[in-house]
Design brief:
By secondary structure, the protein is an alpha/beta fold. The radius of gyration is 21 Å and the shape is globular. A hairpin with a 2-residue loop joins β2 (94-99) and β3. It is built from 9 helices and 22 strands. It comes from Skermanella aerolata. InterPro entries: Fe-S_cluster_assembly_SufBD, SUF_FeS_clus_asmbl_SufBD_core, SUF_FeS_clus_asmbl_SufBD_sf, SUF_FeS_clus_asmbl_SufD, SufBD_N. This is Fe-S cluster assembly protein SufD.
Length: 443
């Protein structure tokens, strides 16, 4: 049975005090300092309330009710045939599997990598790649306004490290599977992902977040990305946590001159989820594409918050997010494009569209442009509506039953967003997830 607490902040502080000395990498002074700085920021910040503008539409009260404890050291049993993949059977692949935040080498398989490339767990990297971690970990987008980032840093123990050297391309997608096994008592895990793609290098990273069982758990993910000059990174995510799960994810990215970064998040799971994505376009000629699709029902709450910082001239950004909301579910989209004074010739585009399938479904959309330069081309838009009765009538007049007609229109609505995924195998897989969700809602 889930337990509740009246003092959630103190609960996390107490847990940190009990386990800090036993966290991995305890002999690395810089890592200890990093964790201590993280817990200090969390102690100072606490959880934001409705008066904090960035959290105006997302209440953390459901999360604060539970006393989460670190997941037990012995990870749950997960059968290999239950784990998702975007790779066709028999093709080379790289897969890292984590159960309740802990790396499972028995479920993981890393194929042959190009010379110099690193794909490993954070726990292993603390031994074999400590210099790389000291150089990059905790250096991208650290802020005093994100308590979940601070909390993740404090409890940092495992996760993923990807390092692609200059001029190297990893052809196969790197798949990372995070499994929440759930248990009788609420558990938490704080995985960390560090991706460093050096100049003119390329990689594809695909995250799968899935849940098993009926337990309540809290997954708090932080991803740091460093893309060198001319680098190309494709970054995709499917979030299918259990209906009792809480999923918080923060992505920060430092994008150098002429680099390209595209990010897509597919959200269908979780009781409360938030994806916060904040890239800085830190050189001329950067291309940044953020997109996603979300499908929520029941009492789910889904929040997508993005901030694209155009810090240099002649960069482009594109955002396309589409959502389907049913039942008493609620979705939030907050998208901000910042154009700095010297970022002339900026081209920014942002679109959020929502489809409301019930009278009690809700969308709060807040697109923003914060422009300090005068030679720019920026636009944004947000719409919300219902299924078109004329289109439904057209399909039904041709012998298609109501349920199938609705699903066809919903799938077509989401198709534009799914098309933003540039890797065909990933795109096909995500389309399959959408189809499965549609069938499950009307079964």
């Amino acid at each position: 049975m889930a337990t509740e607490t009246a003092s959630p902040i103190q609960s996390y502080l107490d847990h940190y005090g009990r386990i800090a000395s036993g966290l991995p990498g305890g002999t690395l002074p810089w890592l200890g300092s990093l964790r201590e700085a993280g817990i200090a920021r969390f102690r100072k910040q606490g959880f934001p309330g409705a008066r904090v503008e960035a959290w105006r539409y997302t209440s953390l009260r459901p999360l604060e009710k539970f006393a989460f404890a670190p997941a037990p050291a012995a990870a749950g049993t997960v059968a290999i045939d239950l784990l998702p993949t975007v790779m066709p059977a028999g093709q080379p692949s790289h897969r890292l599997v984590f159960v309740d935040g802990a790396y499972r080498s028995d479920l993981s398989s890393i194929g042959t990598l190009p010379a110099g490339a690193v794909v490993t767990s954070l726990g292993e990297a603390l031994v074999s790649q400590a210099g790389l971690l000291e150089q990059y970990l905790g250096k991208v987008g650290v802020t005093d306004s994100n308590p979940f980032q601070a909390l993740n840093t404090a409890f940092l123990s495992d996760g993923v490290v990807v390092h692609v050297p200059k001029g190297v391309a990893i052809a196969e997608p790197i798949e990372v599977v995070f499994v929440g096994s759930g248990s009788e008592n609420p558990t938490m895990h704080h995985p960390r992902i560090l991706i460093v793609v050096e100049a003119n290098a390329e990689a594809t990273v695909v995250e799968h977040h899935v849940g098993l069982g009926a337990g309540t758990y809290f997954s708090n993910l932080v991803t740091e990305i460093v893309a060198g000059e001319g680098a190309r990174l494709h970054h995709y995510k499917a979030q299918r946590e259990t209906p009792q799960a809480f999923h918080m994810a923060t992505v920060t990215a430092d994008l150098a001159k002429d680099s390209s970064y595209d990010n897509f998040v597919l959200t269908i799971g979780g009781r409360l989820s938030r994806n916060e994505i904040k890239p800085v376009l830190n050189g001329t000629g950067v291309e940044c594409r953020l997109s996603g699709a979300y499908m929520v029902n029941g009492v789910q709450h889904c929040d997508t918050t993005t901030v694209i910082d155009h810090a240099h001239p002649q960069c482009t950004s594109r955002e396309v997010y589409k959502g389907v909301i049913d039942g008493n579910a609620k979705a939030v989209f907050q998208g901000k494009i910042i154009v700095r004074p010297d970022a002339q010739k900026t081209d920014g585009y942002q679109l959020n569209r929502a489809l409301l399938l019930s009278d009690t479904a809700e969308i709060d959309s807040k697109p923003e442009l914060e422009i300090y330069a005068d030679d720019v081309k920026c636009s944004h838009g947000a719409t919300a509506g219902e299924l078109d009765d004329d289109q439904l009538f057209y399909l039904r007049a041709r012998g298609i039953d109501l349920e199938s007609a609705r699903n066809l229109l919903i799938a077509a609505f989401l198709a534009d967003a799914i098309e933003e995924v540039r890797i065909e195998t990933v795109r096909d897989s995500f389309q399959g997830i959408v189809s499965g969700w549609l069938k499950s809602q009307r079964s």
